[in-house]
Every structure is written in structure tokens, then in C-alpha cells.
Amino acid sequence: MGLTHIEATVTGPSGSAVTVEFLIDTGAEYTLLPHEVWQRLGLEPKRRMGFHLADGTRVERAISECHIKVGEFDGHTPVILGEPGDVALFGAVTFEVLALVFNPFDRSLRPMTSAPLMQLSA
Fold first, then answer.
1. How far is CA 14 from CA 10, 17, 40, 78, in A?
2. In a domain, 83, yes or no
3. DSSP H or E run through 115
4. How far apart are CA 19 and CA 37, in angstroms?
5. Residue 35 reports pLDDT greater than 80
6. Which domain covers residue 43, as residue numbers?
7. How many domains does the chain have?
8. What is d(CA 24, CA 6) in angstroms, rounded to the nearest whole number?
9. Radius of gyration over every alpha carbon of the chain, rounded to an integer in angstroms
10. How confident is the model at residue 2 (pLDDT cuts 50, 70, 90)?
11. Residue 94: which of 82, 78, 110 has the closest Cα?
12. pLDDT attached to residue 4
């Protein structure tokens, strides 16, 4: 099993931008911004949510939103506001916002070719 990182530019409400190296985490629902990044961007908490880590530990973190750009793909996404020591994670909601999918065989991001709302079977 390998780890995959990508670079993305994250922009806050004031227009300040930071390029961040994210670990792609297909098991994470939301993208997580490290403490120093969201502080620099001037993001403000909008609410708090609970999350379970891979080891079963439950943590609470604040949620906000920002603009994110990966290559030619960009959009507005919810983000977890990390606490000191948290690492940058790129989560599933941001994949969907940007219409990207992760190919686990070559560990690449690709454009979503179709997004069916529901598949019918006979």
C-alpha cells in the first residue's frame, strides 16, 4: 500500500491563498486544513462535528469552508479546521465538489466521467 500526496491551492475569504501538500485519504469525508494554514487564510469556525479516526478514537473539530484548486479543477468545499499536529488530508466531499475520482491502481486523480444519481437493475 502506498501513500499519495497532491498539491492544491486553498483560498480564504480575504483572497489570501496557500499551496498545501495534502495526503489523499479516500476514507475521510472532509478535507482537513492544518492549524497554521486555516489561521493564515483567516477562516472562521461555522460549527463543530465529531469524527472517528482509523483507530476508533473520537475527536471533535471545527468546520468551515474555503475555495480549493487542484490543477484546472476548483470549487468551494467544507473543510475541517485542524488543531496543532493535525496533517493536511484531502477527503471525499472535496473529490466530489471538484468532480475528481481517485484511481487506486496508479494512485492518480482523474476527472469524473459521469455521475449517475442512481443505477437501476432489472
1. 12, 9, 10, 17
2. yes
3. none
4. 9
5. yes
6. 5-109
7. 1
8. 7
9. 15
10. low
11. 78
12. 87
Whether 54 is in a domain gets the answer yes
Q: How far is CA 31 from CA 8, 17, 90, 118, 120, in A?
A: 11, 16, 4, 25, 31
Chain centroid to Cα 33, Å, comes to 8
Say how far apart CA 44 and CA 64 lie, in whole Å. 6
E strand residue ranges, 1-122: 5-11, 17-24, 31-33, 47-52, 58-70, 73-81, 89-90, 100-103, 108-111
Mean pLDDT of the residues in the chain: 88
Q: What's the CATH number where 90 sits?
A: 2.40.70.10
Residue 12 lies in a domain: yes
pTM for this predicted structure: 0.84
Rounded CA separation 46/86 (Å):
19
**Cα 6 to the center of its chain, rounded Å:** 11
How many residues appear in the chain? 122
The verdict on residue 115 lying in a domain is no
Given a contact cutoff of 8 angstroms between Cβ atoms, the answer to whether 53 and 32 are in contact is no
